[in-house]
Amino acid sequence: MGQAMYFQRIAAPNGHEEPFSIKRYVDESRRLMEVLNIRLEGRDFLVGDYSIADMATYPWARAYVWAKVEVDDLPHLKTWFDRIDARPAVQKALTIPKAQT
Predict the structure, then answer these.
(1) How many separate domains does the chain show?
(2) What is the tens place of the pLDDT at every residue in 50-100?
(3) Residue 94 lies in a domain
(4) Among 11, 16, 25, 28, who pairs with 4 as Cys (CB 3.0-4.6 Å)?
(5) What's the CATH number where 70 sits?
(6) Are 22 and 8 in contact (CB under 8 A)?
């Protein structure tokens, strides 16, 4: 997803638009979001209870907005985001540094 962000948010605005690279990395990021969605079907968290697996994956997956990856049709992933977003410690962490859009 970092490459999807780079090619769209850094390279393209600086005159180095690479449509092939953008599509490749956005598509691969989307594929990985689909894998997470499948894994989360019937589960609250990635591995049993809330664990380091969720803590490590959540910030990366949550960056889908920055990578311009569509996830609206991935219900298990979206529910997982909501479940983790609702945790008080996560709410506090999301303010450090101040969120940007």
Answers:
(1) 1
(2) 999 999 999 999 999 999 999 999 999 999 999 999 999 999 988 887 756
(3) no
(4) 25
(5) 1.20.1050.10
(6) yes
